[in-house]
Design goal:
single chain, mainly beta, Jelly Rolls
Length: 318
């Protein structure tokens, strides 16, 4: 009896090894099915709620919703269920999975070009390259288990991007981007997935116009930025601004005044000693031309961080 048992065990181990190394359907890897390694098909109303954590902007969340399917362009259009969160994500730029996504391959767009972040059908050991966050990545699928493909991507300068795509949930389950010193630049975690969204969905297609941090100075600071509209020639619907402010105690103070070329002041702020304003967001009219800034920052450790982005606004009601 020992010889047949040994032969059976040997044949079983070889079969499992072959499945772990690759194959058409890695069904032996956990309980992964063929459908779970293939390109998912999204429907209008599919939704995924994510938390986002960055060292610069802290934690926020966004519910991504399939708002439209453009059959002519063969693209999905993803928006956010909260207009305030859509504005926030437009100006802080840490969510690449908004707006247009190609139906074929779920390619995301960076600088107007589709990027193959995902590689369907998933297979252990597959390798490819793409650009994301302004970085060129070399990626490899290093594990598939229970319908989840784990990908590790690295850049030439030693940065690391690790993410998991769930075939059962149809989208990213987690994503972590760390820089060369090992500091996390972004952590994206799926907390809920559902179908059949009912309500409004927003997308702010944005481009940075300025990003400046002003620190303690005895003199007024003068700056400017140009609103020239979208590169397509279309005027922005609005400008979105974002402020992080800390003013020191004991005589600290700060102020900011923004003026457009017509002399209007769409944004003015003033802060006293010990004041803080974290993650404030708002919109102002887009008036093509130059905007001027006058900034005062007093007190050691005081700073005013201002970001401005132009945005084309789209809204759907599902």
């Amino acid at each position: 009896m020992r010889v047949p048992l040994l032969l059976t065990a040997l044949m079983l181990s070889l079969s499992l090894a072959g499945c772990l190394e690759g194959g058409d359907v890695p069904s032996s890897i956990g309980d992964t099915t063929g459908d779970e390694i293939d390109l998912p098909v999204w429907e209008i109303g599919d939704q995924w709620l994510y938390s986002f954590v960055t060292p610069q902007f802290g934690e926020d969340s966004a519910r991504l919703v399939v708002a439209e399917i453009d059959d002519g362009e063969q693209q999905y259009l993803l928006g956010i269920s909260s207009e305030r969160e859509a504005q926030r994500h437009a100006v802080i730029n840490h969510n690449p999975f908004l707006g247009r996504i190609n139906i074929d391959g779920l390619s995301v767009f960076e600088e107007g070009e589709p990027q193959q972040v995902f590689n369907f059908p998933w297979e252990n050991g597959q390798q490819w390259s793409f650009n994301l966050f302004g970085i060129s990545w070399d990626a490899e699928t290093n594990n598939i288990y229970n319908g989840v493909a784990n990908v590790v991507a690295t850049s030439d300068d030693g940065q690391r991007l690790q993410y998991e795509f769930s075939g059962r949930k149809g989208f990213i389950e987690s994503l972590v981007w760390t820089n060369v010193t090992g500091v996390e630049q972004l952590r994206m975690t799926l907390t809920l997935d559902k179908k059949g969204y009912d309500g409004d969905v927003f997308f702010y297609r944005a481009r940075d116009l300025m990003d400046q941090r002003y620190e303690n100075s005895q003199n007024d600071i003068y700056d400017s930025f140009l609103d020239s509209g979208h590169p397509s020639g279309e005027d922005w619907n609005v400008l979105v601004w974002y402020l992080d402010v800390e003013i020191s105690n004991g005589g600290g103070s700060g102020s900011l005044t923004m003026k457009d070329h017509a002399g209007a002041s769409p944004l003015t702020r003033a802060w006293g000693a010990g004041a803080t304003e974290k993650g404030a967001i708002g919109t102002i009219p887009s008036n093509s031309g130059e905007y001027s800034l006058t900034v005062t920052v007093r007190g050691p450790g005081s700073f005013i961080h201002l970001k401005v982005a132009g945005a084309l606004v789209t809204q759907w009601t599902l």
